[in-house]
Design goal:
The protein is mainly α and about 350 residues long. Among the domains are: about 100 residues, Leucine-rich Repeat Variant (Alpha Horseshoe); about 90 residues, Alpha Horseshoe (Leucine-rich Repeat Variant), CATH 1.25.10. The chain contains 22 helices and no strands. Helix 20 runs antiparallel to helix 22. The longest helix is centred in the last third of the chain and has 15 residues. The two termini are about 25 Å apart.
Length: about 350
Amino acid sequence: MMLPVLLVLPLLLAPEFEKVDFRGSTDDRVRLLKHKVGAVRARAAMLLEYGDRDRSIAALLVALSDPDASVRTASARTLGAWGDERATPFLARAMRREKDPRVLRHLLLAIGSCGDTYVARAVAEYLDHPVQEVRIGAVAALGKLADARQRAGLWAVFRFAAEDPDFVVRSSVLGAFVELGWKKDAQQAVVELEKAGALKLWRPRVAIVLAVGGIRWRERADWLKKLRDAERDPRVLAAAAGALSRLGYRDDLLRWVDHEDAGVRKAALLVLEDAGDSRAKARAVQLVRSDPDVSVRFTAAMILHRTGHAEANVYLVDALRSNDVTIWITALAALEKKYGQEFGRNPSAWTEFFKKQN
């Protein structure tokens, strides 16, 4: 569903893309990696994620040396999304020569997705990098590489509080412990974060909430439930909705679908759908008809679309009239993918099509 959005948005937002067609084959996009405009090369690298991997991986590996940082970043992100081990030595080589911290972070993340424990030691060298986002990338990569020999290094980063006044790095270490399945380490990290005052900031609160759900820490379930009325940050509440679902408290989660914050209502509804709870469909019907927030109504409409509800097409066609680019493009992509028609952003044409189907 996201591919058509990626194809269209550049045409809407970037003048230099006006004469560039990104909708071609994998080979066409590979050729665009040699375009004179760096932004075009970057978009092509991003879109290759959806093409033929074997026909494009070599070109992306070359693009890791592109003079434009955005191209190197996009190439690393696509290679990371594939998780193809063939890319690991090339990513590691690019990592060693990269000077831009933002690109370096994405290279580390890609190595985490593509690599194996044999590269963990090289990644661990970046745990004491002077730039925070690079340290976070190294932590996240180690969370995927599953090398128990790096436990001491992760704890060293966690306890070097002077370099992490906003708890961002320590929250990332906690996330890595959860990803690695190290429950005792994660529990100890939560305790230390709380003692250090991390609950005063929203990012570490989110990390702690996600950890409680990720390691199935049922003793903390009551704390999660109380957040519905005690917490004011919707980002924390959205994370708490997912954590409650992972702990199996979906009956409690139903109350969250009626929360005063639209973002929380959306999150709770999507969590119920993701959990396969049949009640998500019934609540989506209610919300798509009556919720005051357009984004909540659209989220409900997409759930109905995915579950094959008879009313879904009416709401998606109506969404084509939205002034929100993301909403109408997503609705259009969903309709075109399901029905194989190309009426574009023309509600009347779609309405006539559905009348004929009936």
